């Protein structure tokens, strides 16, 4: 096996999903790392937008939050949050949203609100923020999460961000005109919704990963496509770019 970690494979596989022409609404954390690797490699003209209103931002280090000054300092311009949501997002001007979550179900619905009963949760999570609007209004959604039974669950205790709802044409029946989640990138494999049922299906397995690992780490009986490919391993350039930005980020945040 090549010298890279599962997290590095996940981030780079997620970065590859983006194109030079994308206008991308970026989530903090793993989505931000993936989007900036794409910008620094194969998609230099991608437009990255963060929830705080920064448009065309090109951070040198990864932000700790949407309020990180690095985003505004390196943005092409900054607009108010109401303008960001009403004009840019709800106006259909963003092609791709990149999200993460605490939990996901087989139809790519996300939970970032509570684990356990809402009134008496085991864990109260940060909440939706702008994610529900991003999931509804971006042209398509990519999701990046590590594959585990804690995260990939049979039934969500709370749906924060709509994926494909109950499956099938549920989004269409609700009047939603966007595609919703089209790809879920994990540290073990890549999943895409079945064209008809919209249930997440494994389409690509990362180098060195066995099907049994994927089955063992998923909270439902996960399905595999008829033809499953092996995810191409990271290139030296991709790894170098990812490690450089992570190193810069660590140094900057330690100094702060």
Characterize the structure shown.
- The chain has 8 helices and 14 strands.
- By secondary structure, the protein is of the alpha/beta class.
- It has a single domain, classed as Glutaconate Coenzyme A-transferase.
- The strands form 4 sheets. An 8-stranded mixed β-sheet has the order 2-1-5-10-11-12-13-14, sandwiched between helices. The chain has a two-stranded antiparallel sheet with strand order 3-4. A two-stranded antiparallel sheet has the order 6-7.
- Strand 10, helix 6 and strand 11 form a beta-alpha-beta unit.
- The longest helix is centred in the C-terminal third of the chain and has 20 residues.
Please provide a brief summary of the model:
This protein is an alpha/beta fold and 256 residues long. The chain is 29% helix and 21% strand. One of its GO terms (molecular function) is CoA-transferase activity.
Number of domains: 1
Strand order of the largest sheet: 2-1-5-10-11-12-13-14
**Which segments are poorly predicted (pLDDT under 50) over 5 or more consecutive residues?**
none
The SSE string, one letter per element, is HEHEEHEHEEEEEHEHEEEHEH
Structural class: alpha/beta
CATH fold node name = Glutaconate Coenzyme A-transferase
The radius of gyration over CA amounts to 18 Å
Query: Count of helical segments?
Result: 8
> Biggest sheet, open or closed, and with what strands and sense?
8 strands, mixed
Which CATH-level-2 architecture? 3-Layer(aba) Sandwich
Helix content: 25-40%
The level 1 CATH classification is: Alpha Beta
Distance between the termini: 37 Å
What is the general shape? globular
Mean pLDDT: 95
Amount of beta strand:
15-25%
CATH superfamily: Glutaconate Coenzyme A-transferase
Tell how many strands the DSSP assignment holds: 14
Protein name: Putative CoA-transferase subunit B protein
InterPro entries: CoA_trans_fam_I, NagB/RpiA_transferase-like
GO molecular function: CoA-transferase activity
Pfam families: CoA_trans
């Amino acid at each position: 096996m090549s010298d890279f970690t599962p997290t590095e494979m996940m981030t780079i596989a997620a970065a590859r999903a983006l194109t030079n022409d994308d206008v991308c609404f970026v989530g903090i954390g793993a989505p931000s790392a993936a989007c900036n690797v794409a910008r620094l490699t194969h998609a230099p003209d991608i437009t990255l937008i963060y929830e705080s209103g920064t448009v065309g931002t090109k951070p040198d280090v990864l932000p700790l939050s949407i309020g990180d000054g690095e985003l505004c300092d390196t943005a092409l311009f900054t607009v108010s949050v109401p303008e960001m949501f009403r004009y840019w997002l709800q106006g259909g001007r963003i092609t791709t949203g990149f999200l993460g979550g605490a939990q996901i179900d087989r139809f790519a619905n996300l939970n970032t609100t509570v684990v356990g009963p809402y009134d008496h949760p085991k864990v109260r999570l940060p909440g939706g923020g702008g994610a529900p609007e991003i999931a509804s209004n971006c042209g398509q959604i990519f999701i990046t999460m590590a594959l585990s039974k804690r995260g990939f669950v049979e039934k969500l205790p709370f749906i924060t961000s709509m994926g494909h709802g109950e499956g099938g044409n549920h989004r269409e029946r609700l009047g939603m005109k966007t595609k919703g989640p089209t790809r879920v990138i994990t540290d073990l494999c890549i999943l895409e919704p079945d064209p008809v049922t919209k249930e997440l299906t494994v389409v690509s397995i990362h180098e060195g990963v066995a099907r049994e690992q994927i089955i063992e780490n998923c909270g439902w009986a996960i399905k595999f496509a008829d033809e499953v490919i092996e995810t191409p391993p990271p290139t030296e350039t991709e790894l170098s770019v990812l490690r450089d930005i992570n190193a810069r980020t660590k140094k900057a945040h330690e100094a702060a």
